[in-house]
Write the structure tokens for this entry.
Amino acid sequence: MTILVTGSSGFVGEVLIPKLKNYGFDVIGVDWKSGTYTNLVKDLSKPLTIDKKIDVIIHLAARLEHDRCSKKEFFATNVLGTENILKIAKQHKSDFIYISTTAIYGSPNSPITETTSISPNGHYALTKWHGEKICQKYVKYGIKSTIVRPTVIVGEKRLGIYKTIFKFLFRNSIIPILGNGRNKISFVHVDDLSDFLIHIVQKKLFGIIVNVGGIVPGDLNQVIQKLREHVSSKSKLIHVPERLIILLNILSIVKIIPLTPWQLSVMHKDNFYDNTILTSTGYQYKHNPMNALKSMADFYKSNFL
């Protein structure tokens, strides 16, 4: 079986592809930049062709929330790029796995399910939602798409917003967090996401929509405390009143603070998921996201200090 993986030079791609190869799958990696597992360097916003027969496509490639790029750039990759890859699926009659995001829900009350109302906040979430709708459009061509919506993905080389927290931790600086910090938050370990994608392929679970909501390692205060202990930091938390969120949103829009409006809208609230649909497929989480967060701190120390 041949699997096409887009975003092969990205964080998830470089974890997923060696796992697929270990299971004996033939993998073709495509990305806009070269990498260990990238066979074809292509701009996905432009039409492309793949000559070799493709059985399954795993579409990871995307502009992400923390990229903070323009609406045009988000649209080019997340919408046009998705349609171009679906055209390949149509050509080869491939099964399709689209990696969306739980950000499409906006900032609803938890636990969040697959039936929670869609309310994108920002260009990233909106274009990922458009990508989902394009997948649904290709059903008429016989393309069975599984839509996977992961929560925050953590693992050694994925820093994102946590790069700022690690900087404060290692400088023994005050760490400002919005709200009282008692909100429960969930993460998914990159190995769990990768293993679940392989599970979908092996079990031929195509045509479903599923959240990969991950595990709650504690509330935000507890998570940061565990990281403080791990790196022996003397940092202290300062709780920023929620009433300042309007001001913080303005500072976010002009990029004075390293947070997007969507991140501000969820970081002071419970953000966790009902994993009933995921577990009904026979998959169980195996990896503790707290271990991933600690490995991220170690990675930051080794590469940025």
